[in-house]
Amino acid sequence: MNTRRRALGLALAAASTIILWQFPFGRYALYPFTILATWFHEMAHGLCAAALGGTFVEMRLFPDASGYAVYSAAQSLSRVGVALVAAAGPVGPTVAGTLLILVSMRPALSKASLAGLAVVMFVTAVVWIRTLFGIGAIALLALVLLLIAVRGNDWWRGLTLQFAGVQACISAFLRVGYLFTEKVPMSGRLVYSDTGQMAEALLLPYWFWGVVLTGIALWLPAWSLARVLRVGRISTR
What we know:
Helix content: 55-70%
Distance between the termini: 20 Å
Largest sheet: 2 strands, antiparallel
Shape: globular
Mean pLDDT: 86
Oligomer: single chain
Number of helices: 9
Strand order of the largest sheet: 1-2
């Protein structure tokens, strides 16, 4: 399979995944990727909070593929900082996924990048995840990635990186309506969604931020896959 066909296949897989995720049966049919999407989303929240001076306390993942990150914000975290942490959930994985797709074009970096992703997942399972299900699921996915990094050839590594990158990019669309919902139910009460938190911090309506985040989440993977198509083959430099 040449690079052009691979990129087209990944784009079709991404579109199919987004559509299937909107239905309960689809989320379970794509269960490993649904869990991975939730992991990407919650990790981005926690790491962004830590980068802005807060503390990433823990992450919880559940068998129904839901989850949440717990973090304590620094006392000096501004309204912009609050908005950035909220936006990190949908946008952070898209940025990381784009980098994975671009790195996949260089076999010299693919092995280290894939192994690095597996190590990060193992570390999160030990340090931050606080549910038995979450620890087991993320550790198992990390083990699969590590085996491909060690035992796979350049083609398999590149394909796996690109597929993982696409999954990260489209994690914002696990539930499309979420970005256009101000409040969502959690633990028996209504809490602000990511875009709801952005609206509270930055005043503009939640649906405006939903449009902005959706645009970013669509543009970045499209740009990265277009780069793969322009290359026409995986670089050997």
